[in-house]
Design brief:
Blueprint (H helix, E strand, L loop, with lengths): L1 E4 L3 E5 L13 E5 L1 H11 L4 E4 L1 E2 L3 H12 L2 E2 L4 E2 L6 E5 L8 E5 L15 H4 L5 E5 L2 H4 L1 H16 L3 E5 L13 H9 L4 E3 L4 H6 L15 H14 L5 E11 L2 E10 L4 E4 L3 E3 L8 H15 L4 H15 L11 H8 L9
Parallel strand pairs: 1-4, 1-10, 2-8, 4-6, 5-7, 10-11, 11-12, 12-13
Antiparallel strand pairs: 2-3, 8-9, 13-14, 14-15, 14-16
Helix pairs in contact: 1-9, 9-10, 10-11
Amino acid sequence: MIVTFGEILLRLSTPLQKRFSQADSFDVIYGGSEINVAVSLACFGNQVSHISRLPENELSESVMQMLSKYSVDTSNIVFGGHRLGIYFLENGAGHRNAKVIYDRAASAIAEVKPGMINWDKAFENANWFHFSGITPAISQSAADTCQEGIEIAVKKGITISVDLNFRSKLWQYGKKPAEIMPDLVKHCDIIFGGIDAPEKMLGIVPEGKTSTQGELLEEDLISIAAQLMKKFPKAKLFSSTLRWIKTSDHHQLQGMIYSKKGSELYLSSLYDMPKMLDRIGGGDAFMAGLIHGLIHFEGDFQKMVDFSTAASVLKHYIHGDFNISNINEVESLIIGKSTSIQR
């Protein structure tokens, strides 16, 4: 059983790539980094349970129905608080960037506190626990609750993974990432993040450079990964995505894995992604592919990075936060058959 922990959000996005000032309606879906990972893992056939805190109202009932549709276990979600967190998305187009506005203050999970979640029950039959840097960014009490879950997972010998998601608009309660994240990451076996995330969250840059901006060579990727392994000795693997942005809806993507065992770097093929439909959740799709690969691919790191990257690429062509691709679709993309009609 894979257990994920994080906020479930109501997403309100402008239709037809309209600007906020043009929109007179919004498309309504649910999402959030950790639940995106959970749904994708479930679509790959894994047993997944998601932990969160929701208010007791009809929107939460809708969330529970949605998760049931994707076979994500909801028995460890707790209820309380007054509101669901919201984010508004203005979809980009061409050279106009997308924009996100958060409305998450005083959400149910922002007010979660240690002791509210029965972690012992949640971790029954669990062999994996995943969280991201978003939950500790919401509030001090959310960070404390995340720490509580991590410490119990460690005692139970559960593998722990983290996505170093950095959201500058969320760190508003008086703490910087470098004050919170190291105490969480030090317990993690697997570390993932955009290639600039170690710098933004932990202050790690390639040796001989002052930042991760600009062109990075393979030696720079190895330097970042090696520094993470040294700073966090428990970590066995660092994985990341490399993204080149041409326009708002035309990116290029490549995945990487650095394994401590053998100190080896593995790179996926480079994918060109013109006419993307929805970038949101691309990193979460990669994270789900990585967890799936680590569980099922028996140390084949090249297969892991190929699968994770292909999963992320497919997500960019699916509306909404979730990657609802299945294993066959991901594997077909890897071998170059995804554009043929399935008859």
